[in-house]
Amino acid sequence: MEPRGTKRGAGKIEVAEPRNKVPRPAPSLPTDPALYSGPFPFYRRPSELGCFSLDAQRQYHGDARALRYYSPPPTNGQGPNFDLRDGYPDRYQPRDEEVQERLDHLLRWLLEHRGQLEGSPDWRPGAIVTWRGHLTKLLTTPYERQEGWQLAASRFQGTLYLSEVETPAARVQRLTRPPLLRELMYMGYKFEQYMCADKPGGSPDPSGEVNTNVAFCSVLRSRLGNHPLLFSGEVDCIDPQAPSTQPPTCYVELKTSKEMHSPGQWKSFYRHKLLKWWAQSFLPGVPNVIAGFRNPEGFVCSLKTFPTMEMFEYVRNDRDGWNPSVCMNFCAAFLSFAQNTVVQDDPRLVYLFSWEPGGPVTVSEHRDAPHAFLPTWYVEAMTQDLLSPPKTPSPKD
Description:
The chain has helices at 104-112, 114-117, 132-140, 168-175, 179-195, 263-282, 324-341, 376-385, and strands at residues 28-29, 47-54, 60-61, 69-70, 82-83, 92-93, 128-131, 149-156, 159-165, 196-197, 210-211, 215-224, 227-234, 237-238, 251-258, 288-294, 299-307, 349-355, 361-367. By secondary structure, the chain is an alpha+beta fold. The chain has a 10-stranded mixed beta sheet, with helices on both faces. It has a 5-stranded mixed beta sheet with strand order 5-17-16-15-14. The two termini are 45 Å apart. The model is unreliable at 1-22 and 390-397 (pLDDT under 50). It holds the Pfam family RAI1.
C-alpha cells in the first residue's frame, strides 16, 4: 500500500484499479482525553428559535401544547415520599422504540420555519443540524467506557445533518432489557409527573397515565468554535418562578438517582452520572437539574438542585474526574472531522461514524437504504424551494 501523497511511476498510464487493491486506511479520530485538554473552546450562549410538541399518539404539533410547569412539593422539612412505582405497569404507555424517527420531527419544524431561517447567519452552508442527545454523546465520549455509538451524516444544500444509528449492541440491550431496568425507566417519567403541572400555578396530578410519547421540544441555535449549530432537545418543564422568563434559562431538567450512603457512592455519582447530566443541560443552556433520590422501595426521599454551571466543582480536584474543556474540545474536533469528511452534497450519500470505547472514531461510506435518513418529503420540499416560492407541504413517510 502506498502512503498518502506518494506519486506513482511517471509516464505510466493506469487504465483501471485492480479489484483486489488494498484501500487506503480510512481517516479516524482519536478520543483520548489527554489530546483535548486545552482551553475551553468558544461556545455561543444558546438561544431558542422555536419549539414543537408531540402528543400522546406521537403526532407533531408546531406549538407548546405539551409544555409542563415546574411545581415542586412544599419544603416542610420532610421528604416528598413520592411513590415512583405507582401506576406501573397499568398506567404506562411507553413509546414504540421500534419506530425509527431519526431527525423527522426536527425536519418538520425546519420546513415550517425555513422562511425565517433563510438568510440567517446560523443557516448557512456549513451549519450542523442534529438532536441535542447526539451532541451529548459526543461530549461524553472521551470518558465513556461502556457504550459505543454510530452517527450517520449527510450533506444537503450545504447543511450537515447528523442522525444517530442504533448499534447492534444497543439493539440487543433494548430487546433484552430486564424487567427491573424497564421499571427504573418508568420511575424517571413518574418523577416528572409528580413534579409538573399542566398550567402555571397548578398542582401535579400523579393519578394519570404516564405516556412517553408526549414531549415538548425546544429548537435552539448556538455555535461551537466555528461550527454553527441548530439542534433540538426535549424539555421536561418550565419554571414559572425563574428569575428570567426567557427560554432556555427558565427551563428545568428533572432526574432521579438511587440514594447514596457512602463517600465512594457519591464519588462514583459525580464522576459518571453527573457528567451526563452536565452535558445534557449545558448544551441547551438549561441552568438547573433537580434530582430526586429514591430508596430501594422506589420512594423519593429527598430532592437536590444541581446548578449546571457548578457541576464541575464536584470533580475539579478528582484526578479521575471529567473536565468540561475536554468534552467540548473533543466535540469541536469531531464536528471538524465530520465537516471535512462529508464533502459531497448528496442526501442519499451517508457517512457512518462509528465508535467503540477504547478506540478511535472511524468512518465508512454508504448509499441509500438502510442508512439514508433524510426523508423524500423533506428533500423534495427543500429542492422545490430553489425553483419556486416557499410552500409548506404536509410531510408523508
